[in-house]
Amino acid sequence: MASLKAKAALLWQSPSLWLLGSNLLTRGLSFVVTLLIARTVGVAALGMYSSTLISAASLTTPISQAMANSATLMAAREAGGVSSWRKVLAANAWVLSACALLALAGPWFLYARTGTKDSFGVMPEVGYAVVAALALGQLLSQFMLGLAHGTHLSRQAAWVVTAMMLLGLLSCWPVIQIWGLTGALVQAALVMAAPGLLLWLYTRRQSAAVSPAEARAGHQDAWARFSHALPSIGSTFINNGTNWLCCIYWVLQHHGHAGVGLVAIGLQWAVIMQLPVNSWGGRIVHALGTAASQGPSALKKETALQVRRCVGVTVLTGLGVSALSPWIADLYQADRHMLIALILINGLAAVVSSINYVFERVFFCLDSQRVWLATSMFTYAIQLVFTAVAIPHSLLAVAWGNLLAVLLIMAIVFLHLRWRWRQTAVGPAHS
Which of 260, 269, 263 is nearest to 324 (CA)? Predict the structure, then answer.
């Protein structure tokens, strides 16, 4: 009995478990909402819902990820718990303001080209407001969660996310039944923004105000970190822009909202395959950053460990989802053969992407973001050409193009890292 209590206590204290749990609930809410839309309004309406969310996230995710990484590293350096959060927030005030403007302009531009066609009863002003709330909410929430990761408060932050997801799960059915697609979109915006707003309000209550001198002292560091991350932002921007063209814009042109709905279902289950890896993002950055400070040998060892960990869990989740794909298609009342094929190809891409997920963070620690950006530009250009040529003939062009791109990135980056670490090993031997 004592042993069971000890194990339960360890599980309760495990940040990784809580992060995984909160991400599972996030994906669970997404699963339930998309399933309800597909079964009550139709797969085409699901295509409209998905195109709105993807348009909001495509240009915001690159910025929010970079700001979350910066928040994690700055908060870890301050080592002051919640009291350091307000200081890091003040240091990043101008950066966050600039990012907020980009997070508004970009998604609005994309939504104007996809969201106003066959809107399924969603008023244009509501659509633009939802896109703005989704974009700004994602930016704030990711930054605040980054602060939590940097001060070893991941578990407490995961509690906030968990609570919001549970409220969303309990309310999504009546919301969709009463307000339809409009209600689903508004709820998605509220759920996205709530964790960031709650953590921000908590920070203001629990920590003292930062003096202007302290804020100015942190501005330079914040801008330097943001500038350092620009190649990574550019790389993710290119990735997301490519995905928007391939998964939304061209699919909408050639296969309509129903095609977008099928692609969205396939991508949703691909995200579930990568769920454990994505939930460990902040901790992976922290582990790689610590190893990098200890030297190339430690970083190489930590990279191999993180790759094995990420690949192993993604293979398991990928096999599970692939085995269930026939029943998934029936559940959504979707084209069975097409959706099964999309899920199988996406499963292969998810495994490769889990490796690239670690590699991108290694490049961040090595200050080799320009190499990553150049690699991304090359591979995504190939994906764009492939998809543009093939999409009029088959919806599967979306999945095959993505698999081609992630395989090319993995191969190029692996060869670069192997060459770099060999050079590092040879250098001391000749000195």
Answer: 269
SS3 80: coil
Separation of alpha carbons 104 and 264, rounded Å: 23
Q: Name residue 379's amino acid.
A: T
Q: How far apart are CA 289 and CA 51, in angstroms?
A: 35
Which pTM does this prediction carry? 0.78
Average pLDDT along the chain, 431 residues, taken 10 residues at a time: 61 69 83 91 89 86 87 80 81 87 82 71 85 91 89 86 93 93 94 93 77 73 85 78 90 92 92 82 77 78 86 92 93 91 95 90 77 85 95 95 94 88 60 41
Q: Distance between CA 390 and CA 397 in Å, rounded?
A: 6
C-alpha 407/C-alpha 391 separation (Å) is 20
Picking from 148, 152, 149, 191, the residue whose alpha carbon sits closest to that of residue 169 is: 191
Helix axis angle, 397-430 to 250-273, nearest 10°: 60
- Give the orientation angle of helix 250-273 with respect to helix 43-58, to 10 degrees: 80
Please report where in the chains the tokens 């950053």 appear, as a residue: 289
What is the length of the chain?
431
> What does the alpha-carbon distance between residue 92 and residue 71 come to, in Å, rounded to a whole number?
9
